[in-house]
Amino acid sequence: MESTMAKSREEIEADVRDVLVDALGVDEDDVVPTATLKGDLGAESIDYLDIVFRLEKKFSTPEKPFKIAQGELFPENLMTDPSLVEGGKVTAKGIALLKERVPHVELGSFEQDPQVTKLSGLFTVKSLCDFVQRKLG
To answer: Between vectors from CA 78 to CA 122 and to CA 97, what angle results, nearest 5°?
Structure first.
């Protein structure tokens, strides 16, 4: 019976924390909502695939598999499209697509200075939790 219960935000945060501690070998204390995956927790490109895999495993149940499509959590594949990135900056079309594709990411000040290199800094522990919660919801 219990597995059909919706997970609370606290449970989601605890599970995401476990995933990041395992995937990145970081201290549990460092996995705070505002921590960025790359800057604060030291995630490399290869780690993102591992994080996706571990999230799928962690949040899948026999009744409901938790599947994350490529680019659904991290829009890495979007950034290779020349209409979305120009001169190292994300274009207006790119920003619009990010808002649509990754609503879990707070773009905020990124819109004022949309340098591709800053994109990875938008992915925080909170954005992962928001993503999972929205997807489970």
So the answer is: 75
